[in-house]
Design a protein that fits this description.
Shape: elongated
CATH topology: Serine Threonine Protein Phosphatase 5, Tetratricopeptide repeat
Number of strands: 2
Radius of gyration: 17 Å
Number of domains: 1
Number of helices: 9
Helix content: 55-70%
CATH superfamily: Tetratricopeptide repeat domain
Length: 179
């Protein structure tokens, strides 16, 4: 089977796009035992096979971040905030991105926008924060500014990525995703 130049280029670029999105994956997380088995904001620790508190020292920031994403996607915003609070890298762009997302989803759009701006100051190539900021702008009725974020996503290599799809869909439909 012969690959076209476009297909080959896209397949080589996907790992870069996923990393640029500000997470290990630029798609919504797949539910794990954290949201399927654990209760009360606990995080499943694969090493022990048990649900543990977000502050448990056996968890690292990557495990906590995965749980933040999973809780946020499931609409468990309080649990996502608790996992986010347990992370040691409070000033990283990925933490600031989710602080913004969670502030916006819990009704504090102004604080969300502040966190988004802070995340972009740390990493202007964070495509996920650009998508979330653009979706907030759609919710606020500022379509020109949302389109500007979409252009930035595309310019920074995010064409066909989840952040691009989510923001483009929000602009076209006039609504946003829960994630």
């Amino acid at each position: 089977m012969r690959l076209s130049a476009t297909t080959l280029a896209l397949s080589l670029a996907l790992p870069i796009l996923a990393h640029a999105a500000g997470s290990d994956s630029s798609t919504p997380p797949t539910p794990t035992d954290t949201t399927k088995t654990c209760q009360s904001g606990m995080i499943f620790d694969a090493a022990t096979g048990k649900c543990v508190a977000p502050k448990d020292s056996r968890l690292n920031d990557d495990s906590r971040y995965d749980a933040v994403r999973e809780f946020a996607y499931a609409g468990q915003y309080g649990d996502a905030i608790a996992a986010l609070d347990a992370m040691s890298e409070q000033d990283s762009d990925r933490v600031l991105t989710y602080r913004g997302f969670l502030a916006r989803k819990t009704g504090n759009v102004d604080a969300g926008m502040e966190y988004y701006r802070a995340a972009l100051e740390k990493n202007p190539d964070n495509l996920l924060v650009r998508s979330y900021m653009g979706q907030a702008l759609v919710e606020m009725g500022d379509l020109p500014a949302a389109r500007a974020q979409l252009t930035e996503i595309r310019t920074r290599g995010g064409r066909t990525s989840w952040p691009e799809f989510a923001l483009r869909s929000a602009i076209e439909q006039g609504g946003t995703f829960s994630y």
